[in-house]
Design brief:
With 320 residues, the chain is mainly beta. It has one helix and 28 strands.
Length: 320
């Protein structure tokens, strides 16, 4: 009885001390900052590779993977960050270049190499790279993975298409869906029924029905240069950063109309929505800070800095 009670006490204490963290990349400083989102304090900064753009975390919160896009988008490295030790290392991907899209699958980083037009995975234990799919598409720039890990979505910017990759045993089968001009920011609706992508070349949003793998709707995003798109956890709204007009456009997901425009400052890029749905964090690149939006009042309630030219973000939940 004593042993069980003592163990329970330690478990409760561990939970009490656990905290969510926000991961933010600084392209200018080439660092990953680990931020306490309750105090907005930077807990640690870890060096990355050259020109880091996107970051993701493993499901267990143990690791962060960073894509290092490199000069002229020709980088060929990933950064593997141990979030407990707060240390990192850069791994060379050899012939794979233009590493921007990044995801985590089965505890390993998944990336797209723009120049080679492939989606591949890297095994940290063996340093082996395995090609999952040859897309044959230009500038595969982002990556969204379904909750069950059986489907991936990737926008191909210069091919005006979305790659839908379905897991079939050890292989992945690609379906190409034509969309508007220059798709980039994208997100899967919380119910998994729709994939939205902002096509900054024409200022629209293409909605893909994930069951039929076809575009079901196209409508204006009200943006000049859409960069990223993120749903709120309840699926009621989609937030789109507009690099060309210094604001975030909030779209009503049910009516496909503009609900609000929020001025956050020059060149907003990465967006991270808190899992509780209370706040959204926007990387305002030209202002060198992060704007915090209250998703009830739709007002900017705080700004904090992590380093010059912030961009990619990810959330790590303490309780899983």
């Amino acid at each position: 009885m004593w042993t069980r009670t003592l163990a329970s006490a330690f478990f409760i204490a561990a939970l009490a001390g656990a905290q969510d963290t926000l991961l933010v990349l600084s392209k200018g400083a080439e660092t990953l900052s680990i931020v306490d989102p309750s105090s907005y304090r930077v807990l640690a900064s870890v060096k990355t590779g050259t020109d880091p753009h996107e970051v993701t975390a493993t499901a267990d919160g143990a690791w962060a993977f960073v894509s290092n896009y490199g000069p002229g988008g020709q980088g060929n490295t990933l950064s593997l960050i141990d979030l407990k030790a707060r240390t990192g290392r850069v791994v060379d991907l050899g012939q794979h270049h233009g590493i921007h899209a990044i995801g985590a699958l089965d505890g390993r980083p998944v990336f797209a190499a723009e120049r080679e037009q492939v989606v591949a995975t890297y095994d940290p234990a063996t340093s082996m790279i395995q090609t999952l799919a040859k897309t044959g598409q230009g500038n595969t720039h982002m990556l969204v993975i379904s909750k069950d890990g059986r489907r991936m979505f990737a926008p191909n910017m210069s091919s005006n298409s979305i790659s839908i990759l379905d897991r079939d045993g050890a292989t992945w089968k690609q379906t190409l869906v034509p969309v508007g001009r220059s798709p980039e920011g994208l997100d899967l609706s919380p119910d998994g029924k729709e994939l939205w992508t902002a096509t900054y070349g024409d200022g629209n949003i293409s909605v893909i029905d994930t069951a039929t793998k076809k575009v079901s709707k196209t409508f204006s995003s009200g943006t000049q240069a859409a960069n990223r798109l993120k749903f709120t956890p309840d699926g009621k709204y989609a937030l789109v950063s507009d690099r060309g007009a210094s604001h975030v456009v909030v779209i009503d997901a049910a009516t496909h109309t503009i609900f609000k425009k929020i001025d956050v400052g020059p060149t907003p890029e990465g967006i991270q929505v808190e899992p509780s749905g209370a706040r959204a964090f926007v990387a305002v690149s030209a202002a060198n800070d992060i704007a915090v939006i209250d998703l009830k009042t739709w007002a900017v309630i705080r700004r904090f800095a992590v380093g010059p030219n912030p961009d990619g973000m990810a959330w790590v939940s303490a309780r899983r």
